[in-house]
Model the fold of this input.
Amino acid sequence: MNGWKILAFGAAVLGSAATAAAQEHQDVNDANNPLTPKITINLQDYYVPSFIDVPGRPHANQFLLRGLVPSDMSGLPQLFRFTLPVATSPEVPHGYVTGLGDLTIMDIFVLPKHGDVTFGAGPLIVAPTATDETLGNGKWQVGGAGIVVAPQDWGLLAGLGTYQASFAGQHDREDVRLLTFEPIVNLNLKDGWYLRSTATWNFNLENGASYIPVGFGVGKVFQLDKGVTMNAFIEPQYTVWNDGPGAPRWQVFAGVNFQFPIHRPTQ
Done:
């Protein structure tokens, strides 16, 4: 009889451990899923220590304040996302300039799931809020964004694509037609740690100055009080293909993301 009790106790312990591991896996995926319906604040930074075929070995930095607010006002779940850069960029013929960049706003509608796969799509608009011409395009832009997320038993697969084109703004500035794609590959480890690769591919359809970087980094997800999640990461990214000068030779992407649960009133 005691043997059966020991076996039952062991099975309960193993079951509890498996449940905890599954919850940890889900928490890490939710922290990295661009379609997670939680209020989100991202404090992220790109540091570029060198550029390809640019004399003088200049560097640049771009701090990104990003946010996400879920809503279901239209009857379909949607995610309102914004990105506001604070950038430091080389200024010709010498020196650097620091200020605000262009504000990007997306409204992503989350579509019904197909199995475990989730799709999202919606409009995108860019406002010319840059405080210096070297920090923005000087053009109003409009376009669209699409997201697909496919959770895996080992981590997360996802992709975010955007297209934007200018329609108004400063007449003496170059028109904008930009296509981007961000592949997201995460491999979950133990204790909230994970490996990541999320470098964004940029295709300038107006002047051909395009480049494809590949990243490899590490992150950790922390569960804070009151259901708040913190996700800290660092990811070096190296450009493996470029068309034309001016692309980052390599860059370091790092940040801290916070997700806040939505407490809906009880009926």
